[in-house]
């Protein structure tokens, strides 16, 4: 069956399932009695090589993932460039006295505003309070780095006093900066809180009478990732590093497209000096009525340079996605005229130069000036995010033609729209695009699935019958929805995670075709999310991986190097008797790896007849299980559903293992 026919036959059923509630797992057994199952594994037969990019990370600035999340900046609207210049700030002054705050428009799009503070009569004090991102996470005993850009206009404002406060308004740290003169300068100091506070705030007080200008008011914890000043939250990056990802896709996601083209992601506005990056509204600011977020903007403290650097830190291939002249088709669907597409073409070519160009080039020189003279070795680039229709193809083609003419080795990623079950005329649109991709032959095509748990279990064989002669597959966004697509009631429960584990066996078995896959979305702020479910949850101080995260981690940490046959009754294990499985050979470690999912409410004694290899004396296992399908991890129980390690002796050279009810088990054993 070819790929196009697969879509014709498969997506319709998925569309019906997408909005339904998940149902219980397999009822093959209705008691706690154990079952038995026998499998055959051919260790020395290769089905496919597993690419190093197989398991990766999809990154989008949704759910306050960057500002208020990964980017460790604690001050909201630090440069006064939100829609309301004092959004996130509160004036501190006596009513009726001579203290005024004036936002000044600079007519410079790369630094649109600063704040003028005029103090004629300070009364009990003149200052500003910042609320942070649903508060500020402040840590006892940890230095926090404060900075402010300031210049004197007239008078004698001689110093600025800084206070950090707990949720009760008690001062837990203070300091001051001096030396204000009539030139813009950056003044810095450090504050060390006397207690830990998740909902802290910051006050800045002006000492004296006169007029001063301020900009870029900033506060960072000093314990950032790799100790980089004004960098990333170490705990969140560590959760990513623990996945050992093969790629990092950025910056999204729908923010690539924007609500309209004026709000699209423009990478050139995100590089260079941090104080000259163009602050932009985040399209998730107003997307959902159930989770309004009028204070959600992008400061681009994490821009394309930081994304590339993060990918390098993680040992992951960078995978940027660029706008192709189309705004989000779920919103305005605004198009740039084809005769005005040149800036989009130039953005693609210039990005490759920024990533890979020598320091003698314009954009390679900028990369070097930012601190990275060596190329980032970009190999692949997405053109368009979730576009569809002829309008997409006619914009895709000239952009890709220009890229290939100058950089023929860059691999192109094309889209198939969003999940076919949730966008207008989804089945027909995906069918149309697959015909076009068969003609245009992009190296990689991106498919997305947001469905209920049953769909993921019922379609572990989704790619078994896809055509093998065309583009490779990137399953770039997927997540089981416990209630419905984007429902605020979705939970990262064990049912969703276990169903995804079953689906992943199918992706791994088809690694000759599916060379990359990633869950979406990645991050969610517990007090600021717009979309759920999500892989990792965090608040201002803490973070945890969901059960879905740990499923992904087990796969990405145990990929092996080659897919090998694992069968039950001479067939791949795709749900027969409630079981799903895949097997790989790890030629580097000299080990057999088996991933097996039991969706029954009974244990299963699994025996494996391994051909072509002699087994070691001990099998190690990592097991995730829970009989409560509604259970999920929390801040209080971040590892409630997570892998545990165990091992057992192999008796008589025969490999067998008892699979717990509702479980994912990863077995590793030496194989000679």
What does this structure look like?
This is non-reducing end alpha-L-arabinofuranosidase. Its EC number is 3.2.1.55. Pfam families: Alpha-L-AF_C (PF06964), ASD1_dom (PF22848). The chain is an alpha+beta fold. It folds into three domains: 31-50 and 562-671, Golgi alpha-mannosidase II (Immunoglobulin-like, Sandwich), CATH 2.60.40; 57-72 and 224-492 and 499-554, TIM Barrel, CATH 3.20.20; 89-221, Galactose-binding domain-like (Jelly Rolls, Sandwich). The chain has ten helices and 36 strands. Strands 3-15-18-19-20-21-22-23 form an eight-stranded parallel beta sheet. β22 (472-480), α9 and β23 form a beta-alpha-beta unit. α1 runs antiparallel to α7, α4 packs across α5 and α4 packs across α6 (390-406). The longest helix has 17 residues, at 390-406.
Which key terms come to mind for this protein?
single chain; 672 residues; alpha+beta; Immunoglobulin-like; TIM Barrel; Jelly Rolls; 8-stranded parallel β-sheet; 7-stranded antiparallel β-sheet; 18% helix; disordered N terminus
Q: Mind sketching the topology for me?
A:
Layout: H1 3-18, E1 35-42, E2 48-49, E3 57-58, E4 89-92, E5 99-105, E6 113-119, E7 127-130, E8 136-138, E9 144-155, E10 159-165, E11 171-178, E12 185-191, E13 197-207, E14 210-221, H2 234-241, E15 247-250, E16 280-281, E17 297-298, H3 304-314, E18 317-322, H4 342-356, H5 362-369, E19 380-383, H6 390-406, E20 411-415, H7 426-440, E21 444-451, H8 453-458, E22 472-480, H9 494-509, E23 514-517, E24 523-525, E25 536-538, E26 543-545, H10 547-557, E27 562-564, E28 566-568, E29 571-572, E30 579-586, E31 591-598, E32 604-611, E33 615-625, E34 644-649, E35 655-659, E36 663-671
Parallel strand pairs: 1-32, 3-15, 15-18, 18-19, 19-20, 20-21, 21-22, 22-23, 24-25
Antiparallel strand pairs: 1-28, 2-27, 4-7, 5-6, 6-14, 7-13, 8-13, 9-12, 9-14, 10-11, 10-13, 16-17, 25-26, 27-30, 28-29, 30-31, 31-36, 32-35, 33-34, 33-36
């Amino acid at each position: 069956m070819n790929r196009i026919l697969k879509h014709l036959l498969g997506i319709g059923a998925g569309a019906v399932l997408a909005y339904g509630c998940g149902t219980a797992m397999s009822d093959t057994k209705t008691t706690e009695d154990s079952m038995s199952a026998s499998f055959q594994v051919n260790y020395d037969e290769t089905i496919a090589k597993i690419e190093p990019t197989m398991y990766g990370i999809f990154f989008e600035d949704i759910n306050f993932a960057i500002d208020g999340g990964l980017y460790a900046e604690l001050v909201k609207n630090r440069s006064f460039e939100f829609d309301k210049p004092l959004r996130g700030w509160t004036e501190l002054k006596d009513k009726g006295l001579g203290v005024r705050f004036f936002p000044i428009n600079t007519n410079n799009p790369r630094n649109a505003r600063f704040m003028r503070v005029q103090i004629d009569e300070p009364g009990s004090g003149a200052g500003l309070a910042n609320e942070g991102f649903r508060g500020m996470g402040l840590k006892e005993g940890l230095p926090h780095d404060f900075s402010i850009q300031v210049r004197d206009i007239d008078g004698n404002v001689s110093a600025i006093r800084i206070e950090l406060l707990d949720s009760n308004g008690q001062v837990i740290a203070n300091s001051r900066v001096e030396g204000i003169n009539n030139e813009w300068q950056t003044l810095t100091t450090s504050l060390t809180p006397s207690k830990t506070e998740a909902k802290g705030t910051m006050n800045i007080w002006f000492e004296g009478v006169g007029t001063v200008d301020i900009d870029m008011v900033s506060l960072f914890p000093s314990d950032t990732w790799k100790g980089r000043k004004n960098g990333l939250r170490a705990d969140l990056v560590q959760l990513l590093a623990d996945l050992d990802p093969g790629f990092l896709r950025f910056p999204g996601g729908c923010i690539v497209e924007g609500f309209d083209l004026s709000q699209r992601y423009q990478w050139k506005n995100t590089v260079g000096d941090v104080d000259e990056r163009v602050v932009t509204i985040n399209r998730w600011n107003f997307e959902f009525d159930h989770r309004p977020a009028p204070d959600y903007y992008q400061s681009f403290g994490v821009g394309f340079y930081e994304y590339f650097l993060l990918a390098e830190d993680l040992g992951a291939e960078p995978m940027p996605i660029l706008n192709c002249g189309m705004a989000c088709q779920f919103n305005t669907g605004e198009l740039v005229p084809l005769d005005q597409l040149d800036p989009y073409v130039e953005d693609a070519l210039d990005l490759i130069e920024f990533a890979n160009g020598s320091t003698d080039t314009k954009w390679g020189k900028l990369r070097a000036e930012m601190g990275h003279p060596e190329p980032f070795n970009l190999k692949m680039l997405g053109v368009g995010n979730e576009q569809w229709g002829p309008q997409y193809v006619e914009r895709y083609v000239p952009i890709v033609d220009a890229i290939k003419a100058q950089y023929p080795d860059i691999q192109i990623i094309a889209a198939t729209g969003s999940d076919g079950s949730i966008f207008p005329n989804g089945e027909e649109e995906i069918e149309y695009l697959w015909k076009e991709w068969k003609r245009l032959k992009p190296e990689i095509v991106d498919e997305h699935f947001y469905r209920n748990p049953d769909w993921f279990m019922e379609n572990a064989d989704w790619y078994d019958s896809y055509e093998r002669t065309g583009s490779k597959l990137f399953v770039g966004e997927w997540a089981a929805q416990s209630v419905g697509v984007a429902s605020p009631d979705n939970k990262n429960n064990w049912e969703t995670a276990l169903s995804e584990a079953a689906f992943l066996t199918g992706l791994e078995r088809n690694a000759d075709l599916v060379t990359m896959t990633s869950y979406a979305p990645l991050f969610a702020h517990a007090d600021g999310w717009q979309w759920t479910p999500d892989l990792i949850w965090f608040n201002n101080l803490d973070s945890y991986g969901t059960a879905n995260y740990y499923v992904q981690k087990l796969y990405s940490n145990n990929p092996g190097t080659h897919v090998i046959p694992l069968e039950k009754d001479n067939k791949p294990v795709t749900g027969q008797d409630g079981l799903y499985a895949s097997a790989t050979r790890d030629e580097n470690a000299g080990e057999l790896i088996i991933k097996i999912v039991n969706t029954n409410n009974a244990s299963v004694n699994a025996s494996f007849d391994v051909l072509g290899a002699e087994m070691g004396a001990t099998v190690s296992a990592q097991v995730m299980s829970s009989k409560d399908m509604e259970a999920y991890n929390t801040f209080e129980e971040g590892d409630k559903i997570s892998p545990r390690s165990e091992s057992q002796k192999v008796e008589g050279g025969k490999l067998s293992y008892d699979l717990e009810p509702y479980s994912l088990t990863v077995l590793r054993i030496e194989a000679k």
